[in-house]
């Protein structure tokens, strides 16, 4: 019984080692290297896209803060609210 256990253990470990080595050898082939490079480029493109979205969102937030701080989003005055310099008495004359 003991020998059967060790035989099964050896076969299992051997199979795992062979699978691991096969995967490593497959990664070293030109196709495997190309797939790794393609995957890396996809991840890089996703990261750049996420960075761009973060920058655009931060810029929009900052623009909203600046507009609120400077009053650029305030409603425009109507014609009777506008007073030009030197024209105060022009209407009454």
Q: Name the helicity range.
A: over 70%
Give the termini separation. Answer: 121 Å
Low-confidence stretches: none
From the spread of the alpha carbons, the general shape counts as rod-shaped
Number of helices: 2
SSE pattern: HH
For the secondary structure, the number of strands is: 0
Class based on secondary structure composition and strand pairing? mainly alpha
- Please indicate the percent range of residues in DSSP E strands (runs of 2 or more): under 5%
Q: What would the average pLDDT be, to the nearest integer?
A: 86
What is the oligomer described by this structure?
single chain
In this structure, how is the largest beta sheet organized? none
3D architecture notes:
The structure is a single chain. By secondary structure, the protein is an all-alpha fold. The chain has one domain. Helix content is 72%, strand content 0%. The protein is built from two helices and no strands. It has helices at residues 2-27, 30-70. The model has no long low-confidence stretch (mean pLDDT 86).
Q: What is the secondary structure topology, with strand pairs?
A:
Elements: H1 2-27, H2 30-70
In short:
The chain is mainly α. The chain is 72% helix and 0% strand.
Keywords:
mainly alpha, 93 residues
